[in-house]
Amino acid sequence: LLNDVVLPSNCCMLFCEGPPASSSSGHNTRTMPERRPFVRLPTDVYPVNYGLCLKPDLIDFTFEGKLEALIEVTQSTNQIVMNCADIDIITASFVPQGSEEINATGFNYQNEDEKVTLSFPSALQKGSGTLKIDFVGELNDKMKGFYRSKYTTPAGEVRYAAVTQFEATDARRAFPCWDEPAIKATFDITLIVPKDRVALSNMNVIDQKPYPEDENLVEVKFATTPIMSTYLVAFVIGEYDYVESQSSDGVTVRVYTPVGKAEQGKFALEVATKTLPFYKDYFSVPYPLPKIDLIAIADFAAGAMENWGLVTYRETALLIDPKNSCSSSRQWVALVVGHELAHQWFGNLVTMEWWTHLWLNEGFASWIEYLCVDHCFPEYDIWTQFVSADYTRALDLDALDSSHPIEVNVGHPSEVDEIFDAISYSKGASVIRMLHNYIGDEDFRKGMNAYLLKFQHKNASTEDLWDCLEQASGKPIAAVMGSWTKQMGFPIIVVDQEQQGDDRILTISQKKFCASGPHNGEDCPTWMVPISICTSEDPKCSKLKVLLDRPETTITLSGVGPDQWVKINPGTVGFYRIQYSSSMLESLLPGIRDLSLQPVDRLGLQNDLFSLLHKQADMQEEKNRIERVLGAISAPDLIQKVLNFALSVHMTTLPHVASVV
Ligand code: BES
Ligand code: ZN
């Protein structure tokens, strides 16, 4: 998912509504096929509860399904429009509450729109009733919808599991449904499976009995889910071992692994049991389900998927071989588990109203996974990795003309997958990190708690979160964040200084940072930039915080003597680059050499200077200065010491190579 491809900035316009392209002369000279604008499902019928029974055939790769959905008709109609893709409906009928069953007389599939219209001979009256649909489908090999996953048993036999991946819009491939995140309902799921297989779904098993028509099968019934979106529904049927534990807040946690590899699930189990109480405490909202399963799936398209109560993972994102896995594998597993468990609250309990807000879902989880891992495993020093992985990557990509705003309007399903990119994830996480730092942890948590309580079991938009954070902090969150999410790119902050007695006067200005050269034109965008400043007196702590809400400003730092250095952006949390004046840059050298400047600060400075270096090609003196600072950060003397040590070891243990060296 997290590939390096950045979409062209107009990618979100593929489906924009408007007249089809035609020449002004009126001749039809279209070069692109006309595409109908995307329309959401009608609201005259909505689901309250899905009673869903599925019977997969793991040999023929097909499945039979029975849906009995309790629905509400809000406006009299003789048709029902639902999402449906690659499914054949056998029969459909509607039973109005307390009245006679009405058989559907037609199923009109709109394949391109992934919809089906069920027609009834008479109008369905306002009120509730049960929609019954029998259908069949294929256990496909596309790793989406209800699909088959190949594995080899310890004895070497090839077998298949049946698994699901529904986000963003593939629940409709497993059963006809209202497949939009804001159309929430409860689910009662039953699976009919071979009796020697494990059957899992979002909830715990409440009943298991032999299937009357086939003695080799059992009918497994799961508890009713809370009200939830279709993209979070999941089921898995296969052969797995598991390890189990109880988190301190009473949730049963299991990690399912391939048969014979239960040992490799122990680390993820430890992470999950530590993580659940962390989130419960951070959000002040308990995890609402009685259990959570984490399962490694042999064939898996994404890295992991946060299905409520049944989180699915690629094997490399969940399993740790205690003897052979390296630290970076453990850190990756901890981050992925932290990410998906965060979604159990942020995404599952409160769900985005539409896919336009997906960046917030993913950006938030991609930030808080680090907060969580830092809490549970402080020895990882994981924030330094955030800066070296997500933050600098986002800056590099977002400086390109081909970047796009974090928030893009999406409609058609084909557009949704396009926005799962590094801008949504890494820039999204970086601006949430900047926001958290701007607000402060206490008010941020207050706002988060208000948001989760207000919208739990419902849907929310990005603006709803900003409102709650604004209320909690008294700061202009919507205005600040809008400048980062609605326009692409970021600023470079240009800083100069002047000493006046015991005061340091800083001149700070912003302009758009472009990898392709300075931004030309009058309409140079500006950002509302939270800026913090530290000095050599306390390099870890901000001496002053300001909000730069205009192109340029002047700041007075009082009590900063001429011998002190001043650094912008301590902790490298602001999503911008900094261009220091020559004197400011040079003055940072002692802080770099004595290491009082923190690793993330040196990392941020190094990254900014690298990106500026090629722009200074015509200014030799400045280039030299930058190279000097970069050299100090990379500490060649330190590298030399390491090299010398390595050589001395070589020469004592392998004297014959000494002459070659
Ligand atoms: N919700 C996503 C998984 C997803 C993304 C499914 C796109 C379908 C389409 C999940 O929470 C996620 O973000 N997974 C990441 C791993 C994470 C640790 C960054 C992934 O799959 O790369
Ligand atoms: Zn995610």
From TrEMBL:
What is the protein's name according to its record? Puromycin-sensitive aminopeptidase
Q: What is its EC number?
A: 3.4.11.14
Q: Where is the Peptidase M1 membrane alanine aminopeptidase domain?
A: 267-484
| InterPro entries hit by this protein | Aminopeptidase_N-like_N, Aminopeptidase_N-like_N_sf, M1_APN-typ, Peptidase_M1, Peptidase_M1_aminopeptidases, Peptidase_M1_dom, Peptidase_M4/M1_CTD_sf
| Claim: Hydrolase is one of the keywords in the record | yes
Species annotation: Anabas testudineus
- Binding-site list for Zn(2+): 339, 343, 362
Catalysed transformations (reactions): Release of an N-terminal amino acid, preferentially alanine, from a wide range of peptides, amides and arylamides
Q: Which UniProt keywords apply?
A: Aminopeptidase, Cytoplasm, Hydrolase, Metal-binding, Metalloprotease, Protease, Zinc
Provide the Gene Ontology terms for cellular component. cytoplasm; extracellular space; membrane
Catalytic residues per the record?
340 (proton acceptor)
The family note in this entry says: Belongs to the peptidase M1 family.
Listed Gene3D superfamilies: 2.60.40.1910, Neutral Protease Domain 2, tricorn interacting facor f3 domain
What cofactor requirement does the entry state?
A: Zn(2+)
- Output one GO BP term: peptide catabolic process
Name the CDD domains on file: M1_APN-Q_like
